[in-house]
Automatic annotation (TrEMBL):
InterPro entries (alphabetical): PA2201-like_C, PoNi_C, PoNi_N
Domain PoNi N-terminal: 4-123
Range of residues in the leader sequence: none
Protein name: DUF1911 domain-containing protein
Entry superkingdom: Bacteria
Coiled coil: none
Listed SUPFAM superfamilies: PA2201 C-terminal domain-like
Start and end residues of each PoNi C-terminal domain: 135-243
Length: 250
């Protein structure tokens, strides 16, 4: 198996996946314990059981998402990752907030588009965005691709660094697809990674402890939505080429 993100070895990724698997099992067991206690009207914590369960489910989603990224980075088959994605949506349902989780939702929308996920999954994600009253042009553009009845239409992004550039990529497509791909290449080479310097995962590969992989999933989604020729992006760091083309490289 050939790794997609070369910053860790297959052995490192496999060890990491084993850790995520154990952590997810522990969280699932703890959540089930709380659910059963609630049925018996037994309070397990100083905080309400429901609050503790909610937080644990959010943590579980994060663990599963990290595992998903790691599986993609190590080179796992895309068909298997489609099942993992469906499970991610199920776990996230009713447990998302815009506070601290913007990037995770952007990844979920983008991955869903690249994997041709069921419309219902996109509706679940968009419903959570709507419930949070989030106005974000990149979210809106991606959702509108799958849900023509999506009514939000913002012209700004919540986080201009680095995502403002994606709006220029989108608008340039009306003028020239070649211009859009040039701007996307610049975004990947000069803006995307640097623009996430405040994220906990930034530069994590340097410490050799944990590294899920660095992927600009929105770039892949934009290529698919805009119908761009991404042959020049193949092999470029951060670009999820295999995910964009999962259905034609089987």
């Amino acid at each position: 198996m050939e790794t997609r993100d070369k910053l860790f070895t297959e052995e490192q990724y496999r060890k990491q996946l084993a850790g995520y698997f154990q952590r997810c099992k522990q969280l699932e067991s703890s959540i089930m314990e709380i659910i059963n206690a609630e049925k018996e009207h037994i309070q397990l914590y100083s905080a309400p059981n429901s609050n503790v369960a909610y937080n644990k489910i959010v943590t579980l989603f994060g663990c599963k998402l990290n595992s998903f990224l790691t599986k993609y980075s190590v080179g796992e088959d895309m068909a298997k990752l489609k099942d993992d994605y469906n499970n991610l949506v199920k776990t996230l349902t009713n447990h998302w907030t815009i506070t601290g989780m913007y990037v995770q939702m952007l990844w979920m929308l983008s991955i869903g588009i690249m994997l041709d996920t069921d419309e219902q999954n996109i509706r679940i994600l968009s419903s959570m965005i709507n419930n949070e009253n989030v106005n974000d042009a990149l979210y809106d553009f991606l959702i509108k691709y799958r849900l023509t009845d999506w009514e939000r239409c913002s012209d700004t992004v919540l986080f201009p660094v680095p995502y403002q550039s994606t709006l220029s990529i989108i608008s340039s497509n009306n003028q020239s697809k070649e211009l859009s791909i040039q701007k996307l290449e610049k975004y990947l080479k000069k803006e995307w990674y640097r623009g996430h310097s405040d994220c906990a995962w930034h530069d994590d590969h340097k410490y050799g402890i944990r590294h899920d992989g660095y992927w600009s999933f929105e770039s892949g989604a934009l290529v698919k939505v805009l119908g761009l020729d991404d042959s020049s992006l193949k092999g470029l760091p951060y670009y999820p080429y295999d995910m964009v083309h999962w259905n034609d490289i089987k």
